[in-house]
Structure formats: structure tokens, C-alpha cells
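Below sits my pick:
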Amino acid sequence: MLIFILGLIIFLGTHSIRIFFEAWRIKQIHALGEKKWKGIYSLLSLIGFVLIIIGYNQTKLSNIVIWNAPLWTWHITILLNLIAFILITASYVPNNAIKVKLYDPMILGVKTWAFAHLISNGTLVGIILFGSFLIWAIVDYKSCRTRRLSITTESIYLSSVMTAVTLVIGIIVWAVILFYGHELIIGINPIM
């Protein structure tokens, strides 16, 4: 459990710097340069992510079950994850309507992903993992909205083609993770 918690602290801590220490972050970017800052940030995020996966897989065998999720919650989780992957994809594809309308689709995707997993996972480690990500996403979303109020927005060209590309990529990534990646990385087949 220690590796799992350490991974969560590193990953979510790194992703919380902008929320709680924006002035310090800006100073570090100026001192180190943007590329070096992004490199350190990415490396720490990757280390945290790997530790989360390793720690999660280690705790599965001795995990405490708080409640047993009914089978129907797995179906809801699968559907909500489709929405989550489309939202997350929208944050990377330029000029798509989802990003323009929602502003922060990545954080909304993380919220949806975390909530979806909370309803179908009643283990202690699952509640800690997905609850932590959900709380972080709620706090980060509020922070992003506050920052956005101080930024003037420019008009963005909307492309129906890019919106369609967003949907297709989101669906493909969701399907690959659902049918292959989830079991490979996490060791759990969500469609068993």
C-alpha cells in the first residue's frame, strides 16, 4: 500500500502545483526554462503513475472489500468511460466543438472516469484511488475556472471534421482499453 500511496502523492501532487503554487511554478519555469520544467514535470508524473499501477496491482491480492458492487454498475462504468475518453481526447484535438463548449474537457473526463470507477469498485484501494482523483479533479476544475476568468478568450474556428475526429479517436481509445489495455495494465477484464 505504501508504493500505491507514494505514487498517488507524487502524481496528484505534481498535478496540483498549478492549483496551489502557481506563483512558484511560474518562477521555476523562468528559472529552468519551459522545456526543462516540462521534462521534470513529465518525469515526476510518469514515476507517480508507474508507482500507482505497481502499488495498485500489489494491493489487489490483500485488498479490503468495503462493499460489493452489483453487476449493473459495471455497465454504467463502461458507458461513462466512453464519455470520459471522448472528453479527454477533446482536450488534445484542436478546433473541436467539445473543447470550445466545455473549456476543460480533460478535467471533466477525469471526473467522469473517477466517478464511473467509484460506483463499480467497492475495494479500499479502489475507493482511495478513484476518490483521490475525483477530489483532485473537482478542485482543479474550480481552479481552472478561476484562472479562466482572468484570461481574455479569443474566438476559435470550430471544425465539424475535428469534432468527428475527436469522437472517433475517443471511441477507438476506449475500445482498445476496454477490450485489451485494462486487463494488460491493471489485470482486470472489465467485460468478463
The radius of gyration is 18 Å. The mean pLDDT is 89.
